[in-house]
Design brief:
about 5% helix; about 70 residues; little secondary structure
């Protein structure tokens, strides 16, 4: 059995749902199951930087060297 094709869309006026760009051939039989999207509370703001690009400025440069008593 193939993995299900998943997509997201919104219900439009009159309770209509339109799905475009499906990876199936014309005339192929498919099963349609619709459920309300659940937003897990922990995913909303738990990792706000996930997926953001990381940039290193002087990655081998010392940090706060002037604040160490031993270094003075």
């Amino acid at each position: 059995m193939e993995d299900p094709y998943r997509t997201e869309t919104k219900v439009s006026r009159g309770g209509k749902v339109t799905i475009t760009g499906l990876p199936f051939e014309q005339g192929e039989e498919v099963e349609v199951v619709i459920s309300r999207k659940r937003v897990r509370e922990q995913d909303v703001e738990r990792y706000p930087l996930r997926g953001q690009p990381v940039h290193y400025v002087n990655p081998f440069h010392g940090v706060a060297e002037d604040e160490w008593e031993v270094m003075q």
